Amino acid sequence: MDVTLNRRQALVLVGAAATLSAHAAGADLRIGYQKSSVNLMVVRERKLLESRLPGVATKWVEFPAGPQILEALAVGSLDFGFTGDTPPVFAQAAGKDIWYAGLEPPKPASSAILVPSDSRIRTLADLKGRRVGFQKGSSAHFLVVRAVQKGGLQWSDITPVTLTPSDARAAFERGALDAWGIWDPYYAAAEIDGRARVLSTGVGLTSNNSYYLASRALTRDARTLKALFDSLSEADAWVKSNRSETAHFLAVESGLPLSTTIRFLERRTAGPVTRLKDADIADQQRVADTFAQLGLIPHPVRVADAVLKA
To answer: Which chain regions cross the lipid bilayer (predicted)?
Structure first.
């Protein structure tokens, strides 16, 4: 009996080991990105993962925003993805099995509340009674929340209009929105074409942190995570030294005008990918607490419970 149990235990251990090393063994690595995911796009273009993960096929999938990336991650369609600060809060509050694996430096200047160029809205307080568009559960959602607070208003003082970035821009341009919370490169595109005026950037409102999220299975694969973070940091350094080439590449890949990608990169904060430190977790907890206090998520969440420990 003891021998049989030992054999069964051995089989279980072998099976577990096979699961944990699935990516190293050559299973597809599925990565979700969006138009703001500069480093991921450079990693893909320059094939920075190939030498670090020989034999691993990488599948790249573009999404319009972070909430869609985390939904795909939660249902097992992705292994790794890039989002702003708010999507992980909504995902965690909904009981999704997602994990904070790393983050980039804050980018508060890379998001803004925009109004039409001829708008009478001049201050954040002027948003009272206005239709304000944003992608629900995105970093722009928190940006709008903070803008309302800084303007001395209540959330009930505005009419939230939740739209994807492309739908929001169309609504903004036809006059169906009085203001629009958005991030780069959509922000840069609207700003450059002259139809939008910046009411406020994210500076003084939000850190606008960018996170890398992983599936539970990937959190157990230290080799693949290290390869991802090393590649992302290498990509970031390359972008910093090759901004013009990067702008041209992004314009081709995204279909955006070159002037837009140049503006996007000009205000983008560079820096390597790091694991979350206590201060980062505390900053993200403030985001989560704000949504909970307003009743915009079903219950409070403890961010630290979903953070991959170094």
So the answer is: none
Q: How far is Cα 209 from Cα 188, in angstroms, rounded to an integer?
A: 18
DSSP assignment of 211-248: EEEE-HHHHT-HHHHHHHHHHHHHHHHHHHH-HHHHHH
Q: What is the mean pLDDT of residues 239-256?
A: 92
Domains of the chain: 2-106+209-306 (3.40.190.10), 108-201 (3.40.190.10)
- Read off the pLDDT of residues 185-197 as tens digits, 9 standing for 90 and up: 999 999 998 789 9
210: exposed, middle or buried (Cβ count in 10 Å: 0-12, 13-18, 19+): buried
The residue type of 280 is D
Burial 27-49 (b: 16+ CB within 10 A, else e): bebbbbbbbbbbbbbbbbeeebb
pTM: 0.85
> CA torsion angle for 166, 171, 172, 175 (degrees, to 10)?
160
Read off the DSSP letter of residue 268: P
Helix axes 243-254, 258-266, angle to 10 degrees: 130
Q: Are 133 and 190 in contact (CB under 8 A)?
A: no
If residue 11 lies in a helix (H) or strand (E), which one and from where to where?
helix 2-20
Encode pLDDT of 43-55 as tens digits.
999 999 998 999 8
